[in-house]
Design a protein that fits this description.
- The structure is a single chain.
- With 167 residues, this protein is an alpha+beta fold.
- It folds into two domains: 133 residues, no CATH class; 31 residues.
- The chain contains three helices and seven strands, in the order βββββαββαα.
- The strands form two sheets. The protein has a five-stranded mixed beta sheet with strand order 2-3-4-5-6, with helices on one face.
- The longest helix has 25 residues.
- Bound molecules: zinc ion (ZN).
- The site of zinc ion has 7 residues, from loops.
- Zinc ion binds next to loops.
Amino acid sequence: MQPIFIPNLLQLPERTEEFELEEFIEGLETLTPVRGSLSVTHQSTYLDVRSQAETIATLVCHRCLAHYNHRLQVDTQELIWLEAPKPDHPSADENQGDELLETLPPNGHFDPQEWLYEQLSLALPFQQVCSDDCPGIAVETPQESADVDSRWASLASLKEQLSQRED
Ligand SMILES: [Zn+2]
């Protein structure tokens, strides 16, 4: 999927570009290609972008750090307003709500792969845990206990120094 030059959409039947998806998305770790469809329709003042896609993402468990597979699905629609970039008016930028709307310049490009990457990333679970009964990481490793010991040792010697000073 190459970025689309937005004005080109106006030349297409129903002003729509459609993609059949069967590809890996850069930056997204997946076991299988992303499969599904994506369409972009030019509606004069905005782009109507829709996608149904799924893949198997390879995630890292937040508890035990093991890799595991997670089925990722999106069935989504987004309107992207076509608006020329505004000149900088710092005082007029107070309205934060407007800033959250996605906009593109009418004679710019829309990158369907980047858009899909964002949608799939948003669909990732917030809590990534390999299974409900994930045992988690072994609490004590030799490395860790050695660190703790050396910290206790320096604390002990500090205590000793302090008590000597009192004498
Ligand atoms: Zn786990």
